Amino acid sequence: MPKFSGSCLCGKIKLRGNGNINVSPNCHCADCRRATGAVYATMLFITEDQVEIEGTPSTFHHKSDRGSDMEKCFCSNCGSQVFGRNSSRPGILSLRAGIIDQTELINPTVNVFLSSKVTSTPINNQLPAYDKMPN
Ligand SMILES: [Zn+2]
Ligand SMILES: [Zn+2]
Questions:
Q1: Could you tell me if residue 133 is inside a domain?
Q2: Rounded to an integer, what distance in angstroms lies between the CA atom of residue 11 and that of residue 19?
């Protein structure tokens, strides 16, 4: 029984997951802002072996502020970002929270890159907060 499912806007890329999501950052960095088109990105970190992916996303690579390789995976048809990989976290997929059907599973656990947040963005002060990405 899958715990969650998700898809891009057009449905060409679909995924199903069976794992628990332990870390879910709200990332306020400028890269996430540009890549998503939203003022911050909510991500769900999950081990890659717990996610089944249907369809082949296109990829774009760039460097993180620490020099690691960041891979953005998106649908070539509708342009939705679906997940990402960071070479400094092998085996971990960073799902874009907005693609998940079971929205009750989206519960951010931490705010990161607050140093570059948009001034008008409200912040949940109950969550741990970091200026950059903690280790
Ligand atoms: Zn699509
Ligand atoms: Zn970011």
A1: no
A2: 22
> Nearest ligand, CA of residue 54?
1
In a domain, 122, yes or no: no
Count: domains in the chain: 1
Beta strands 25-27 and 110-112, pairing class: parallel
pLDDT, one tens digit per residue, over 43-97 is 999 999 999 999 999 999 999 989 999 999 999 999 999 999 999 999 999 999 9
pLDDT number for residue 1:
41
Taking the centre of ligand 2 as the mean of its atom positions, its distance from the CA of residue 35, in whole angstroms, is: 9
Residue 53, domain CATH: 2.170.150.70
Q: Which ligand is nearest to the CA of 58?
A: 1
